[in-house]
Design goal:
By secondary structure, the protein is of the alpha+beta class. It has two helices and six strands. Strands 1, 2, 3, 4, 5 and 6 form a six-stranded antiparallel sheet that branches.
Length: about 130
């Protein structure tokens, strides 16, 4: 059984985890932020998987966005974590996990959102990967 989707997420999570000591709220793992602490909240937003080459065994191409929310207490100004993440996931970066290679196509930040006592800015890393046909 192929594990391409899990491998894509694992490659991105592993790369983010090696960035610095900022706490990370991983998907589907209980995380209680402490007061006045900045943390990251990543999630994979798959876009599409389509056939990329001819024939029954032609490669599939998967596009997705790896969104990393930089979450910090409201009212404490901006952090430089946006640029740190953008530098970590530079356009052209290739990540590999279980022989699945993922290429970063672009990285950008979104508009800030204030939610109660928290201020967060999404950093969107657009990726693309080619895998064997399913």
């Amino acid at each position: 059984m192929a594990t391409y989707f899990n491998d894509i997420q694992a490659a991105l999570d592993t790369h983010l985890d090696g960035m610095d000591s900022t706490p990370i709220a991983w998907p589907n793992i209980n995380y209680e932020p402490t007061t006045r602490t900045t943390y990251l909240r990543p999630r994979l937003l798959p876009a599409s998987t389509i056939q990329a080459s001819l024939g029954d065994s032609g490669k599939d191409v998967t596009d997705a966005i790896y969104q990393i929310d930089v979450v910090q207490p409201a009212g404490e100004g901006r952090t430089d974590l946006f640029d740190t993440i953008a530098d970590r996931f530079k356009r052209g970066t290739v990540l590999t996990y279980n022989s699945v290679k993922i290429r970063v196509r672009s990285v950008e930040i979104g508009s800030a959102i204030i939610d109660d006592a928290w201020y967060f800015v999404p950093v969107s890393v657009t990726i693309q990967t080619y895998t064997e046909a399913r």
